[in-house]
């Protein structure tokens, strides 16, 4: 994306820098102003959702309140809830910024930040889940507490997954009591509204990192004890599901930088290593090592179980869904 | 679920007993009262949907009316329709009770009956379909007429599927005229609303048993001549589809106690035997014998076609999605 | 469908003839009048959506405006937009007629034209996309310019796909500037509403032919540079997706008369030849020759890669999803 | 009104006869059907409000629920409340019938019963007040218990007012405890909605007879301890107000057959005798004897205080607002 | 109003000139644009109601549709009705322009044309009544056919009232059949909505001239056979009422240039001469000669019945409500 | 009102004391909780409007946002505007408290503070006007700056009106620029919504004191340059109107403690002295001295112009509307 595309005249600051939020909001307003001028039929919509607001969190709270409201859950009530939390907590806002950046840079069909803010249901659903996590006292964006993971590009030489899982474990201890004690009814009511409005069903106790892209998002299902690391990209119809009728840790753990193709189904408490790639339509019931590719139903590792092919790229960022085909077509004769 | 979890202080009566409906409604109100106190932001919602009503059927009719209404189909009209039928027919109400019980006991993420009543779109969609079946004169919950099938645990030693199919056939003869003569426009309008609001598309002429769990439910498609027995559990994105452009009996017949994993596709007038298990992502185009497991695309029987492995459990109740993996991984090397 | 089923007393004119639109509208009103009489609870709905309108385009604009509106996108605004374009352009209207015919004749569960007009979300989503294409200046229904393709039955002896692709290429050159210059914000806002309301996500820059059936439609995702020929039938959960994080021509090209089964995933800039059939649940990453069948994950050609079995039928019209099973079951043993 | 004007082909039964309600409902449906045919733009409205309902009380409950609902008081809730009571109590329904008849025969601008049912806010507000009275346990339509008052034409030779007031006194004793104990919050919430929606402010503890016409109705204010007899006609902007800041019986008592002209203000616990006439714009602070006329600000009796002119007609039925002008113009020179 | 106040930079054209409508619309858009910039909270509202529209009639139809809609009368239906007529008939549009001018120049609290268009309920109610008159086939703006009356300042030397009444008589002959034959249900439904939403109750058969100001408007009641000439100003709570229970010509006839003060009540088929003034709170039951002043309850002529004081001004334009006080205070001692 | 009536168990603190707001809010919540328990049908309404909020200003902002919203002015936008100002400014909140107290103690039909907060449209309209005044920079509650006027009982021995008017004059100088420069569009849009929803039309530039009771409120009109002192009670249909078509100071000035009866009309820049009483239906065009009573149309002073009867009570607090009748009836014979 050439710098010339930014309407607000200044180049974006480095990801994660202090003034990124401010820059982004000014950029979003510039885009919306430009769109309102070229398309009068949308101007009212753009003013009410973006241009009449004084900050990104007010705009987001307003938009979510109006999207998720129903005749029995009023928009004013939802707006009030969202705004209260988004205003209080700066880490939530920086997570929002990272998710907007993820959609803008990884999805070639995403033409502007304001487009993502208004129209991407994966992005919008995720913000509600983050809100719920925060409200429920779960450690939000669990990996935040590990400083060197904050960089948008994770350090591939370290087994981040281990640390993620460790961290999750600690977070889970903290969260467990909170979750069982507290604001579950609110969390579940919001999950239900997201499922109705966006057809996205993410359990509010799932733990999700930063810089996540849910592309298209329709039909995504993420279970209660699932964990998703940083910079992961997940396509539509993906299931991170459980098994059995009893509680406990029963859903997948997804490492940083993973790419999960459309309609892939991953079931049970399995580990998808950092930088792994799951092909579209795959059914995965076993662990997948870091930086390998699993495809098919049942899923097999490209290159074979013993010596799977390893790739250098970070699939969650490169979004390359089909490069394994050459190996694969060999494999399938 | 330990008895201590029940807010209303008394243990649940045996499934199917006469006072189960009353107990359940008192339990739901106790849960809602408890939630309203701990979460004032939701209290208005809980009062309007549950606590202000005098019975389960009024609460359900109110909730469905408000969920499914649109600017051209008013909530008052839908409420009136639902309430009229739910009040009249006690068999519909006992089916509702069985479905609530199915979700509460089989889905570990389901923390209360009120949570299911308010938020489970699989449950809600199913109640509308039952309403429609009743309105259209189709014999509701077809197996009701066979007394010994009413037990929530089906008798595994009998080939229930045969009787189901037989019964269906008889029901179908009765239903056929009704369906072709009568309230199809209403039935189809409601199907359309369910598809818009819940992304669940169940044809109103499908015949569906008791104690059904549609878990997550997003993307489920059930065709016109499909039959689903008792105590079946079906995950999201499952298709029970037809083939060809001509009418007639062209959709799957699912026996009692079957478990169908996420994103499985079953096409054509095939029989899935009682207690069978269909793996996630499977594509099934042929009959599956009772108590066997079919996985993969195209689906194969675990243990092989000639002597498939048989299991003792009832998968629709145990919800075990992945235990076949040991056999399978042998199979796939 | 016997002629006796038509309420308005006259047989349908030949497809594509000048008076087809008029006949269809009179048929739809006759159906709605009949339904309103037999089902008073729906009469208000049928009058507001169909019977109070003077033409098919007014009825459609009204219905879409009320379906897609939200608290920030008013129904009056949407109605105004749709009506303006539908009234102006007769080619859009004839495309609408062809799509109604496609649903009515190919889907045995479709009992009337009015049922399709009111309740088929695949049909409704498609009309919005066509509206958007027109508004954005993209050559609508691209293959219109090739006269002999207008026939509802395409001439199987010609490699239409080549011409389609050629035509697409030319259209794309024209469209490219328009798309980059113009009404993208409106197009994307409508895409977002379709995705929320119908769970159907079709990029407004995709190019789509006439006589298309999106059956059930839930979960369909069609990417930015995808092309869909005439008389194609696409089931629910189908993905025509891209790969990579960069723009450019990166989505599938679907020839005329193709049938794509439920939950099939086709990725990348691959060509599905005219009259090909893609089995349910298949994952297709490579070209599929005309009139062959691809099934499985990864998808293979029935009959083998070297000499795939060729069929005479047009699967997009016959809707036969499972006939390949005989070959296949041989194949899989 | 010539008999030929009745669409349903049969002449109206005598007022108060048993089959009047049935005849009226059939007449209203006939009128609505006729209007729906001649005005397609209104057909949807007429079907939803009248033609889709099976009885007058359902239609009325539906219409009131939709008129009075707000974002915090749902239409389904109001519909449920109204329907429950209207269905239970036949005396409420016969009062509704008498009020419809009053508007139809006394207001020359009232062209049909359905017009009154749908559009007369005085009529609609009154039905809600009656509902509230019933719900609060106040003896509804207080004079019902005196049989010979039930006739639509009251017997002018009897001082009905005395009996009315006596009866009120008894009713009040019963009502007092109920009013102070019970459903005041509901009553006051409905009063507030009527005041917002219709600009009609009738305290729910006021006691109101049968056959009342509130013509135009805008701005009518009736206080807490006011009593209105049978067959009274009250124009818009009329106040039946109190005085002082303490409770107790402080509002006017209006006898049977009284006519109160537009913008008249009657204050304090004064008695307006049966068959009296209050001129438009009058300010009345003292008792007015039966069958006399009071006009002016301050109001004086036409003919003088000592020997006021007496009329034979029943002004509440003749609706003659200006005949006193001859006497008056003499009076005023 | 100094010319400098006009945002759009050009002075207003002469009243009634051909380009006045165009100038006014450009002025309204300039005002709205200015307001949207200075008050972002209102920008969405101003864009949706004014700035997104291409003409005054579209803006007005949109605004009225959204103001008057209810859950049973959809905004899209009303918008469609209004737009259809406003677009067709240029005389309706020129009447709208004259009414906007009347409010802007006569009411010192009216700060802009856009303020009047959006917020003046007297103006808005009047436009609906004009629409209804047109739809019903009544000769709209009855005096239009007399050319020399079109001037915004009427010629005071002519007894316009005579001609008005004559014209009314002719119009009435034409209208009578139409009114009895045709679109009464629609007319009365709209009257009812105006009464609910604006508390303004104007019978759709009343005949109303051009350049009318209904100031504040709350509580205005105008009866079925009332006639209002050109350039009349009417304050809130004014009643032009009838008498008796029989039909026929029973409401007041108001001449050109009349001013009727707040809460005045005029009853019966009396004539208020051109340029007369009716004091606030007056009750008028007899004819009032041209250019005289009637005050009090009952109303008397200032200066005495025999030789009433005559004024030169046109009260409907000067809006002088209290200048008679000097005469009057003499009169009342 | 005996202390026993207060649900929250503690007696009210002295008016104006620091903890009055806190006490009132706790009292309102206690009342609402009590009502919610006794009337389940209203519980949802009471929770959403009162019980789910953490402060009086949040409850009020929520309630007003939902009352005044329309399809083009969203409730979330209004809520945001109201909450922002109510939270910031404590003087606005103390004015709200004084107005609630005024209604509760002066209107015998007002049974609780929560009843007033939810249902009194006079109270609600007034809060919006105060909000608008604040937003527009006009000195709110103008007399606030004169300390000894803050007492709820004004000191009758001082000519407060003089000081009020002086203060107004100064306030007006400040306000003039602000009003002409700034947020007029917002102010007028809100005035319009109040007029539509409550039928109350108060110009946002009017200046209004503390402890005001607008009883019933329907039809009240207050002009642009009107001033209303402290502890004034105004009944419904009252007009404080202007005269003429030019701007400037042209509306009444109402002193402290005045009572204005129903349907009274006061026109022009006249002064109503402190503690004066205006009879119902009066038309007042001249000054009324302090503590005298004016009645009739045209209004005269009770006791005669030269030596009008003076009363000791404060009519705005005693609410005695009719005690003058003894003098008056002498007067009128």
Automatic annotation (TrEMBL), chains A, B, C, D, E, F:
Q: List where this protein forms a coiled coil.
A: none
One GO CC annotation, please?
cytoplasm
**Occurrences of domain Serine acetyltransferase N-terminal (ranges):** 24-128
Task: Report the family membership.
Answer: Belongs to the transferase hexapeptide repeat family.
Which controlled-vocabulary keywords does the entry list? Acyltransferase, Amino-acid biosynthesis, Membrane, Transferase, Transmembrane, Transmembrane helix
Transmembrane is among the record's keywords? yes
Q: Where is this region: Disordered?
A: 1-20
- What residue ranges are annotated as transmembrane? 123-143
Q: In which pathway does it act?
A: Amino-acid biosynthesis; L-cysteine biosynthesis; L-cysteine from L-serine: step 1/2
Q: What class of enzyme is it?
A: transferase
Give the protein's recorded name: serine O-acetyltransferase
**Which PANTHER family does this UniProt record tie to the protein?**
SERINE ACETYLTRANSFERASE
Kindly list the GO molecular function terms attached to this UniProt entry: serine O-acetyltransferase activity
Give any Pfam family that matches.
SATase_N
Q: What is its EC number?
A: 2.3.1.30
UniProt record, GO biological process = cysteine biosynthetic process from serine
InterPro entries for the chain:
Hexapep, Hexapep_transf_CS, LbH_SAT, Ser_AcTrfase_N, Ser_AcTrfase_N_sf, Serine_acetyltransferase, Trimer_LpxA-like_sf
């Amino acid at each position: 994306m050439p710098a010339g595309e930014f309407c607000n005249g200044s180049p974006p600051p480095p990801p994660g820098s202090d003034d990124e939020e401010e820059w982004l909001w000014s950029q979003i307003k510039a885009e919306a102003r430009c769109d309102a001028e070229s398309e009068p039929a949308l101007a009212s919509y753009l003013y009410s959702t973006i241009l009449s607001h004084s900050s990104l969190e007010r705009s987001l709270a307003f938009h979510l309140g109006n999207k998720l409201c129903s005749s029995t859950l009023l928009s004013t009530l939802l707006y009030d809830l969202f705004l209260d939390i988004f205003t209080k907590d700066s880490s939530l806002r920086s997570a929002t910024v990272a998710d907007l950046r993820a959609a803008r840079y990884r999805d070639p069909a995403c033409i502007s930040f304001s487009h993502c803010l208004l129209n991407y249901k994966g992005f919008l659903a995720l913000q509600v889940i983050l809100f719920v996590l925060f409200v429920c006292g779960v450690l939000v964006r669990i990996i935040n507490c590990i400083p060197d993971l904050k960089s948008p590009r994770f350090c591939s030489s370290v087994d981040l997954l281990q640390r993620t899982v460790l961290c999750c474990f600690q977070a889970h201890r903290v969260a467990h009591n909170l979750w069982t004690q507290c604001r579950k009814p609110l969390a579940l009511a919001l999950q239900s509204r997201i499922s109705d409005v966006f057809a996205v069903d993410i359990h509010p106790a799932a733990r999700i990192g930063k810089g996540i892209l849910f592309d298209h998002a329709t039909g995504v299902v993420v279970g209660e004890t699932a964990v998703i690391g940083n910079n992961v990209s997940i396509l539509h119809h993906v299931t991170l599901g459980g098994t059995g009728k009893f509680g406990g840790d029963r859903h997948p753990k997804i490492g940083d930088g993973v790419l999960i193709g459309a309609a892939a189904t991953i079931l049970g408490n399995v580990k998808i290593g950092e930088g792994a790639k799951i092909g579209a339509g795959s059914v995965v019931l076993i662990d997948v090592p870091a930086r390998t590719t699993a495809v098919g139903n049942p899923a097999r590792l490209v290159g074979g179980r013993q010596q799977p092919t390893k790739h250098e790229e970070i699939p969650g960022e490169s979004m390359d869904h089909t490069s394994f085909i050459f190996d694969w077509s060999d494999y399938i004769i």
